[in-house]
Amino acid sequence: MLFGRRRLPVASQRFSAEEACPSFAKMRTDKATFSAELIPESFLATVDWVQVFGRAAPLEVDLGCGDGSFLAARAQQHPERHFVGVERLVGRVRSASQKVEHRQLNNARVVRFEILHAVQQLFAPESVALFYLMFPDPWPKRRHQNRRVVTPEFWRAATRALEPNGELHVATDQADYFKEMEQSLREVPILVRAPDWKRVGLPASTFESHFCANGAEIYRLALRKSAIQESGGRPH
């Protein structure tokens, strides 16, 4: 089933400034930017999130945050944590920003970036407590499947950004995409399944609500960054 799917660039390609951060080219002239939207000074620089939020706190990142329903609800549930939504499409960035502003959530920001580039560039090593990737574009046609964001390159970038024992939660309604995710994980042994993770307490995103209402089966991965070494050492 397709429902307003995201259309993102090929995950493995390299991006220009305008492609990686569409706001970058007009960051100094776009007067319509919402205050909840953060436009980094450079699309290549790591963001100092402590400075952005004015305090130190665990950071959760919603990759492909859509209209911001999940992001805003999660941030409202946990005012003691920081939340960043990453979204490429300008309309969804505005919608997410409006939700954050309407609820006066000072612990949430939205950035307009392509997912892989954001994970690679915006977050310092071991700075993220939890990533969410909820219903990424499945690119169902076979000739387009190389555009899917979940690849070994994505897993490695997320692992680098995760703090020790940080987690990555993924959801999709596409069985073949889920199998592909599981297969690509074999190349990144530092990411292991989080056996005690449960969905209880998490708000539903707009995509999830739609899929569940239509009886779609939801496939989930809950992963944790283990203490294993990249060289192949054992967990400790």
How is this structure best described in words?
The termini are far apart. This protein has a single domain (56-225), classed as Rossmann fold, CATH 3.40.50.150. With 236 residues, it is α/β, with parallel strands linked by helices. The protein contains 8 helices and 7 strands. 28% of the residues lie in helices and 19% in strands. The chain has helices at residues 17-20, 49-53, 69-77, 90-102, 115-121, 152-161, 175-184, 206-213; strands spanning 59-63, 82-87, 108-112, 128-134, 162-172, 191-193, 219-225. It has a 7-stranded mixed β-sheet, sandwiched between helices.
The CATH C-level name is: Alpha Beta
Oligomeric organization of the protein chains: single chain
Going by helix content, strand content and strand pairing, the class is alpha/beta
By DSSP (H or I, 4+ residues per run), the number of helices equals 8
User: Can you tell me the number of structural domains?
Assistant: 1
What is the averaged pLDDT score?
Answer: 82
Classified in CATH, the superfamily is Vaccinia Virus protein VP39
| Rg of Cα set | 17 Å
Question: CA-to-CA gap between the ends?
Answer: 42 Å
Q: Tally the beta strands.
A: 7
The fraction of residues in strands falls at: 15-25%
Low-confidence stretches: 1-15, 24-34, 230-236
Order of strands, main sheet, comes to 3-2-1-4-5-7-6
- CATH fold category name: Rossmann fold
* Major sheet details: 7 strands, mixed
What percentage of residues falls in helices of 4 or more residues? 25-40%
**Outline:** globular
**SSE order, one letter for each helix or strand:** HHEHEHEHEHEHEHE
CATH-level-2 architecture: 3-Layer(aba) Sandwich
